[in-house]
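Sharing in case it's useful to others searching the archive later.

Someone asked me privately for the predicted structure of Acetyltransferase (GNAT) family protein, so I'm posting the question and my answer publicly. Question first, with the sequence:
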Amino acid sequence: MPEIRPFRPGDEPALADICLRTADAGADATGVLADDDLWAELFALPYAARHPEYAFVVAGDDDVPLGYVLGVPDTDAFNAWFAAQWWPRFDARWPRPDAGSTQRQDVIVGIGHGRGETPDPYAATHPAHLHIDLLPQLQGQGWGRRLIDTLTDALRRDGVPGVHLVADARNTAAVAFYERLGFTRLPSDDGVVALGITLDDGAPT
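And my answer, the predicted structure tokens:
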């Protein structure tokens, strides 16, 4: 029987695999980019490295994670750390792309280079943010709700007033899921849907 537990060192390969297999608007992104490792180095591993206390997994019978929720309590502080300490290790591997390139890998690499250059647009009211992914065998069984409840309970205990996330607009099932949990839509760029929820009383924004 799967169970939710805190992230532990050694879970990183499983987190990277989950991230890759759900990165294309919820579908498997293997081979979508020239380098599959890019997804996890942007959207999973730095979260567990910086804030393991806000990282929770659903582990299977063999204790290997099959899903996760990863959060940070202060998005701007996390982005500053990411820009100064995490991403520079990859400058040679993934150099800054030419401005205006629409190649998908260039767009994703550009996210890495741009993170932390400007304040997050949602951090003033929803300072925390999260990423959540589940492998297909766990989907539709309530694990997503339980993971988010686990994270938001931890953030609320630590006095964090709100949390946001940004979903691919193509992933309509995920957007509907977040809205059922009480997240409400925030102003968003084309192609994505940002959603947030307040945590001081558990009520949506």
